[in-house]
């Protein structure tokens, strides 16, 4: 059996920088035409000039024959002015702005400490139609880690959507029924990305047979009832839900340690993992819209015109891949996947 799709895009991706970037970028470029590149470098990408320089480094790291297109984003801070947004919009290559609540996840220390600090920037984004990409988790120590998305929606996102009713918002890597309901209850300016790992795994994966650091990401995996809602949303054919891997490579030694980093690496097999999830849901015919059409439509970009083909063939996922001078352990390392992208 085989499946041919319009070439997909990845609307949420971490590719890092330097030697790690060189190690991972080919995995994404062989499947996807474009990807929204997350700006959480150290230091973060906060200006158009930094984004252009980062874009050049990504292009330089690509295999020679690749026409993969990185879509750049800015990292919203307490100090992002309307001028920075206006300049980015005028320059044209910035596709979105990412909101990390300060301290919510990897390299988010420079994130927004209070959303009111961002009102001028958000006003400018609304005026320019520049999407806000949201890491939707509160950071309060007294909120249970499994409830942080729901509480963020109640406290921050609903009021934000009311204050900026035209602002394009993507609830990135949605993980809960509450997140899906939020997206469904608003107009078409509000959408969500869904990762392959949140479609395929529930929180048991973090504890099966012992503590599993490679199943730890943020937002953290949730219980099965939430996973079922994510599957339903992904296969619904609703254009508000589209593919964003949140593939987040970390060196093995930074995962397998006393205080391990959050992030799951899925770029090695992203479209294959989504195919598996859609097939399990009996909805392979819905994969193309989710993976290849709806994201481009939301961002106001043309859909891709070429195609990829997946074959139903078993293949073993390697135990690791190189990552700079270390290695990264991919999702389902050492296990068998049953869809394979034809080269
Ligand atoms: C991401 C990373 O490692 O940069 N980690 C993750 O668990 N998803 C950051 C993020 O998107 O939260
Ligand atoms: Zn991410």
| CATH homologous superfamily descriptor | Metal-dependent hydrolases
Strand content: 15-25%
CATH topology value:
TIM Barrel
Query: SS-based structural class?
Result: alpha/beta
The coarse overall form would be globular
Spans of at least 5 consecutive residues whose pLDDT stays below 50 are: none
Number of strands: 13
Radius of gyration equals 19 Å
Give the H and E element order: EEHEHEHEHEHEHEHHEHHHEEEE
Q: What compounds are bound to the protein? A: N-carbamoyl-L-aspartate, zinc ion
Task: Describe this protein's structure.
The chain is α/β, with parallel strands linked by helices and 343 residues long. It has a single domain, classed as Alpha-Beta Barrel (TIM Barrel), CATH 3.20.20.140. It has helices spanning 18-29, 48-61, 82-91, 119-128, 148-163, 177-184, 196-200, 224-234, 252-255, 270-280, 287-299; strands spanning 2-6, 10-13, 34-37, 69-75, 94-99, 132-134, 169-171, 190-194, 241-243, 307-316, 321-323, 326-328, 336-341. The protein has an eight-stranded parallel sheet. Helix 3 (82-91) packs parallel to helix 4 (119-128). The longest helix is centred in the middle third of the chain and has 16 residues, at 148-163. The model has no long low-confidence stretch (mean pLDDT 97). Bound molecules: N-carbamoyl-L-aspartate and zinc ion. Zinc ion binds at residues 12, 14, 38, 246, 248.
Q: How is the topology of this model organized?
A:
Elements: E1 2-6, E2 10-13, H1 18-29, E3 34-37, H2 48-61, E4 69-75, H3 82-91, E5 94-99, H4 119-128, E6 132-134, H5 148-163, E7 169-171, H6 177-184, E8 190-194, H7 196-200, H8 224-234, E9 241-243, H9 252-255, H10 270-280, H11 287-299, E10 307-316, E11 321-323, E12 326-328, E13 336-341
Parallel strand pairs: 2-3, 3-4, 4-5, 5-6, 6-7, 7-8, 8-9
Antiparallel strand pairs: 1-10, 10-13, 11-12
Helix pairs in contact: 3-4
Zinc ion is lined by residues 12, 14, 38, 246, 248.
């Amino acid at each position: 059996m085989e499946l041919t799709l319009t070439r997909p895009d990845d609307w949420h991706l971490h590719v890092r920088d330097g030697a790690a970037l060189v190690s991972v970028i080919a995995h994404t470029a062989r499947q996807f035409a474009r990807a929204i590149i997350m700006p959480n470098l150290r230091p973060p990408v906060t200006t158009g000039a930094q984004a252009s320089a980062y874009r050049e480094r990504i292009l330089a790291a690509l295999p020679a024959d690749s026409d993969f297109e990185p879509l750049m984003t800015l990292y919203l801070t307490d100090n992002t002015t309307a001028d920075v947004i206006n300049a980015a919009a005028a320059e044209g290559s910035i596709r979105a702005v990412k909101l990390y609540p300060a301290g919510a996840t990897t390299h988010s220390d420079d994130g927004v400490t209070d959303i009111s600090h961002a009102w001028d920037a958000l006003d400018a984004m609304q005026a320019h139609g520049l999407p806000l990409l949201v890491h939707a988790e509160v950071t309060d120590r007294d909120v249970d880690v499994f409830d942080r998305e729901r509480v963020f929606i109640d406290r921050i996102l609903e009021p934000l959507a009311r204050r900026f009713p035209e602002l394009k918002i993507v609830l990135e890597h949605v993980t809960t029924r509450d997140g899906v309901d939020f997206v469904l209850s608003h107009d078409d300016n509000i959408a969500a990305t869904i990762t392959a790992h949140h479609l395929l795994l529930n929180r048991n994966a973090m504890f099966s047979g012992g503590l599993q650091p490679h199943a730890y990401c943020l937002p953290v995996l949730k219980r099965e009832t939430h996973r079922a809602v994510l599957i339903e949303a992904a296969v619904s054919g609703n254009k508000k839900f589209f593919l964003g891997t949140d593939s987040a490579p970390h060196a093995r030694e930074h995962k397998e340690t006393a205080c391990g980093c959050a992030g799951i690496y899925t770029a090695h097999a992203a479209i294959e993992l989504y195919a598996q999830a859609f097939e399990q849901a009996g909805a392979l015919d819905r994969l193309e819209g989710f993976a290849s059409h709806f994201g481009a439509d939301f961002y106001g970009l043309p859909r891709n015109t070429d195609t990829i083909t997946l074959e139903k063939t078993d293949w073993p996922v390697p135990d690791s891949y190189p990552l700079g001078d270390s290695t990264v352990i991919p999702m389902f390392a050492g296990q068998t996947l049953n869809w394979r992208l034809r080269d």
